[in-house]
Amino acid sequence: MQASPDIMKIGVCAPPEYLERLMDAINDLVEPLYPGYDRAFYYWPVKGTWRSLPGSNPFIGKIGEIEVADEVRLEFAIKEKDLTSVLRLIREVHPYEEPAIDVIPMYSWKEFIPSSD
Question: Which of 37, 36, 115, 117 shows the shortest CA–CA distance to 76?
């Protein structure tokens, strides 16, 4: 196993109408991680909840009120070299003032299986 992972798993929730836009923009930006494949994402419906505090500019909801909204959870893996660009792109495309973006270092499963070459 190498000293540090060079792959990052990204997770972010967004309104469903932004899903395709996010996937297309991310796919156009990154080097494919999986040989022979691109646009490799997972997504599923979730419920998001939050309360916007004074001074915020909510995309959905009103200041001081608890909001519950239908969202999609989008997850994907990228090479570490693409991380900063992907985070900037999500901030540009995502409609929320403060999107919650998870960045999780990960190892490729291929690092644990000897090559048959």
Answer: 37
